[in-house]
Amino acid sequence: MNPAEIDALVASVQAAKASGQPIPQVASDEPNPADYGMGADFSDANAAFAGSEVPLGMLLDLSLPVSIELGRTSMTVQEILRLGRGAVIQLDRLAGEPIDVYVGDRKFAEGEVVVLGEHFGVRIVRIFAAAPQPQAA
Q1: Do you know which InterPro entries this protein is assigned to (predicted)?
Q2: Where are the domains of the chain?
Q3: Domain 66-127 has CATH 3.30.1330.130
Q4: Which of 72, 88, 102, 109 sits at 20 to 30 Å (Cα–Cα) from 131?
């Protein structure tokens, strides 16, 4: 589902709510998330999430950028311009420390680098729970 289709669907749901009509169902030929061990049946997302703007089933097709961070460093422009082929940049992490996995701009997990044939991969070793919401005083 592309962003234009999502916007159109959200607009139709909002229009239906505003006019008091039933919210249109999203037809999907995708497998049920419960088939993947998620432990819940989301086949009727409108009933399960009646107060939300968008049914959960719509979000299952979204693509998000995944970034893997091996480490960080700070360099001046002059140092960067002096880099050449074979240059080594020292990062703030020690060898063997877990690497960070970001989904969007949120730290999602930690992992370790693995080699799969001729490619690198990441084995997830820890997934972070959602950050606690600040409580009002």
Answers
A1: FliN (IPR012826), FliN-like_C (IPR001543), FliN/MopA/SpaO (IPR051469), FliN_T3SS_HrcQb (IPR001172), SpoA-like_sf (IPR036429)
A2: 3-59, 66-127
A3: no
A4: 72
Phi first, then psi, for residue 134 (nearest 5°) are: -65, 140
- Rounded to 5 degrees, φ, ψ at 7 are -60, -40
**DSSP characters for 6-61?**
HHHHHHHHHHHHHHTPPPPPPP--SPPGGGGT-SS--TTHHHHTTTSSS-HHHHTT
Of 100, 124, 105, 99, which is closest to residue 65 (Cα–Cα)?
105
19-49 pLDDT tens trace: 776 665 555 555 544 445 444 455 554 455 4
Q: What pTM, to 2 d.p., does this model score? A: 0.49
